[in-house]
Amino acid sequence: LHTAYRRQRQMCIRDRTQGMLIYAIGSPLGLRDQLTKGTVTRVSRKGVFTDAQILPGNSGGPLVTELGDVVGVNTLKVSQKSALGEGFGIAIPVRKINENFGRYLK
């Protein structure tokens, strides 16, 4: 990869910040390969929070940047009414996955 592009990719992985454009990929409600777009609303050690729709069936799918870098794995949606209503999604940060499962992913 071109050096500037590589630096940009590394920056995106490290600097997940509020307002960053993000995409959730999954198979909600039995529909394959669906993509929803949103922004990162919060980043913490426990998760990457997003307003991208995380519907039933999206869990386990990747949360990616515009460049296609995986920043997390979609885990759940928090909503006051139902899983189909408004709310926010939470993804496990890819760093956390590498810490806990890295030896199995090689």
Which properties best describe this structure?
alpha+beta, 106 residues, disordered N terminus, 2 helices, 6 strands, 19% helix, six-stranded antiparallel beta barrel
Describe this structure in words.
A hairpin with a 7-residue loop joins strand 1 (21-26) and strand 2 (34-44). The longest helix is centred in the N-terminal third of the chain and has 12 residues, at 3-14. The protein is globular and about 35 Å long. With 106 residues, the chain is an alpha+beta fold. Residues 1-13 have low confidence and may be disordered. Helices cover 19% and strands 37% of the residues. It has two helices and six strands; from the N terminus they run H-E-E-E-E-E-E-H. A six-stranded antiparallel β-barrel has the order 1-2-3-6-5-4.
